[in-house]
From TrEMBL:
PANTHER family: TREHALASE (PTHR31616:SF10). GO terms for molecular function: trehalase activity. Residues 20-95 form the Trehalase-like N-terminal domain. GO terms for biological process: trehalose catabolic process. This is Trehalase. It comes from the Bacteria. Residues 256-617 form the GH15-like domain.
Length: 629
């Protein structure tokens, strides 16, 4: 593989980076896998058949690891890009010297009922309707445009170039094979094989259409013709709109970002199991050119349960139903507690390895697959799960019988471990510590478990769990607060940590508590860069990593919620508006934001950022409506 750089993390100053900025990618999803599209019309990331499979288009991580372009010849910058409203279908408009072209891209999912049958109160159609098909249509709006198609898969994360064979007599379909996988490209253009790629070029005039589709479905089913291809794009639009129609999105000036966040989150869901990935990518760097590169294509208990919390507020409850099944089915560890993360199919082992042949995004190495965090002890996980079960129980007015053993085992696990150090919510790879946010989430675990026991009428367990919750609370307020009355990162430091903002989100402390106000203000003043929140200062924290990182978007959104909770509504609104201004051109967020360069950093799009956006908007909107939270 080419490195495209002259040393780790160092690009020649003469040549601009060949990697588009992370925030310029568009995201498509069929709820089995996701694709990232660069502004020039190239699919730079696609793993098939599902999120955690090896990539077939991996240019995101190495410019020679495979790509698939459809767009005008000789022009790289579109005039505009937007999602078809209410969908995860992309529309790109190009203006060339001789004409205008519209390209639509969809990872096909559907069928959905016709628009007039949308009923927000009924369950949507069975939504495992992915076609395992990427459809791309082109329409010349005016003049003439030379359309170029280049499809160059490289299988196994850039390892195995495709071997192409034409299928059928007309050179309108070809199969690419490599690493035990075959995908089929079909089009109305005339294809030519050039080694590991196929290419086509065709002049379209006003009103003319072209299409292509890539299939990895069983039987490699492809559209019959252009009408069918366009109908599949429309089907996909209907699918997303049908899904979105179930949501109760407040009629507020933030309606658009709320909708986009809901669509992004749903697009991170793996429908066969109800699990969500933290992000569809691996190894987009948290430090430019650096080594903080992780694989996020797994389901973290924390990320998913926080996601469900956000979706509940939008009345999107079916996702919680599915995920409850998932957690009831996954295999716990030997002591009965849940792992902190699983594969999207419930797999327990996520062994981390490096792919040394890949250059990494803009030279950021290593590229990792798997995630060693899976075997860590992170004591917040029980609270995240039990909070989610309580919320779900209240919303659905029933506690499914099969979840009760899980409630008991997680409450017992939290009771057993809350006094012990752990790796914390940030998954530090240094020494285990007595993290305040981990203990706070253990309090959440026992507090929510006690409430669930009351709902179930379990008179024995409810008081025991409530008593343990009180013990944890006392312990935190004794050891977890500095002499300035601020919640600290862990018991042996006075350093700040944005995860202590969860004291507001999970109502560990009431809005008028002085310690909460002191913590929120300290974080706003001392843990920010240009007003955006760091999760902690890397020079004050033993996280087992090197190098600085950007501000963490979830932490900035948490600060919005916390400011609203302590009654600082105008400060909350101001920060929310700033955060909305730094969204990507298509309304998406990565994990981090570099407050100095304005660039997004880390995996993209990131569920954490979008779920916290919804939570922050909720805090402000509720406060605006009622004058209280
Ligand atoms: O930066 C260190 C850690 O980064 C990842 O963890 C982060 O992402 C997780 C998924 O969104 C999230 O649950 C966690 O709170 C974040 O700190 C990475 O997965 C870890 O391996 C890594 O140590």
């Amino acid at each position: 593989m080419s490195t495209g750089h002259d040393g780790p993390g160092r690009f020649s100053s003469a040549a601009p980076s060949p990697f588009p900025p992370i925030e310029e990618y568009a995201y498509l999803s069929d709820c089995h896998t996701g694709a990232l599209l660069a502004p020039d019309g190239s699919v730079d990331w696609l793993c098939v058949p599902r999120f955690d499979a090896p990539s077939i288009f991996g240019s995101l991580l190495d410019r020679e690891a495979g790509t698939f372009r459809l767009g005008p010849d000789n022009i790289d910058h579109p005039t505009s890009r937007h999602y078809t409203p209410g969908t995860n279908v992309l529309e790109t408009t190009w203006r060339t010297k001789s004409g205008w072209l519209l390209v639509r891209d969809a990872l096909v999912i559907g069928p959905a009922p016709p628009d007039d049958e949308i009923n927000p109160h009924t369950r949507p159609p069975v939504d495992d309707d992915a076609h395992h098909l990427l459809v791309r249509t082109a329409h010349c709006l005016e003049g003439t445009v030379a359309v170029q198609l280049i499809c160059e898969p490289v299988f196994g994360y850039g390892h195995t170039p495709a071997e192409w064979t034409m299928t059928g007599p007309q050179r309108h379909a070809a199969d690419a094979t490599g690493a035990g996988l075959t995908v089929r490209l079909a089009t109305d253009l005339t294809l030519g094989i050039e080694g590991g790629r196929v290419r086509a070029r065709h002049l379209l005039s006003t009103g003319e259409h072209a299409w292509c589709a890539l299939s990895w479905a069983a039987g490699l089913a492809v559209p019959a013709d252009g009408d069918h291809a366009r109908a599949l794009v429309d089907t996909t639009c209907r699918y997303w709109r049908t899904w979105l129609a179930q949501a109760r999105i407040p009629d507020h000036r933030w309606r658009d970002p709320l909708q986009r966040s809901a669509l992004a989150i749903k697009g991170l869901t793996y429908v066969p199991t109800g699990a969500t990935v933290a992000a569809p990518t691996t190894s987009l760097p948290e430090t430019p050119g650096g080594a903080r590169n992780w694989d996020y294509r797994y389901t973290w208990m924390r990320d998913t349960t926080f996601t469900l919390r956000a979706l509940h507020w939008l009345d999107l409850d079916w996702e919680a139903e599915e995920f409850m099944q998932f957690i009831a089915d996954v295999q716990p560890t030997e002591d009965g507690s849940l792992q902190i993360m699983y594969g999207i199919d419930g797999r327990r082992e996520l062994t981390e390895t490096e792919l040394p042949d890949l250059s990494g995004y803009a030279g950021a190495r290593p590229v990792r697959v798997g995630n060693a965090a899976y075997s860590q002890r992170q004591n917040d996980v029980y609270g995240a799960v039990l909070d989610s079960i309580l919320l779900h129980t209240r919303r659905s007015q029933r506690l499914p019988r099969r979840l009760w053993p899980l409630v008991v085992s997680q409450a017992e696990a939290a009771t057993r471990i809350w006094t012990q150090p752990d790796q914390g919510i940030w998954e530090a790879r240094g020494e285990p510590r007595h993290y305040v946010s981990s203990k706070l989430m253990c309090w959440v675990a026992l507090d929510r478990a006690a409430k669930l026991a009351v709902l179930r009428g379990d008179a024995d367990r409810a008081p025991t769990w409530a008593h343990t919750a009180e013990q944890i609370r006392d312990d935190i307020l004794t050891h977890g607060v500095t002499t300035d009355g601020v919640l600290r990162q862990h018991y042996d430091t006075d350093a700040l940590d944005a995860s202590t903002l969860l004291a507001a989100n999970f109502r560990f402390l009431p809005g008028d508590d002085k310690r909460l106000a002191a913590t929120v203000n300290a974080i706003a003043e001392d843990l920010t860069e240009n007003g955006f929140v760091l999760r902690y200062r890397t020079d004050q924290t033993d996280d087992g990593q090197h190098g600085k990182e950007g501000t963490f978007l979830i932490c900035s959104f948490w600060l919005v919620s916390a400011l609203a909770h302590i009654g600082e509504l105008q400060r909350a609104r101001d920060l929310m508006e700033r955060l909305l201004r730094v969204k990507s051109p298509l309304g998406l967020y990565a994990e981090e934001y570099d407050a100095h360069t304005g660039r997004h950093l880390g995996n993209f799009p990131q569920a954490f950022s979008h779920l916290a956006l919804i939570g922050a908007a909720e805090s402000i909107i509720l406060a605006e409506r009622t004058g209280e939270l």
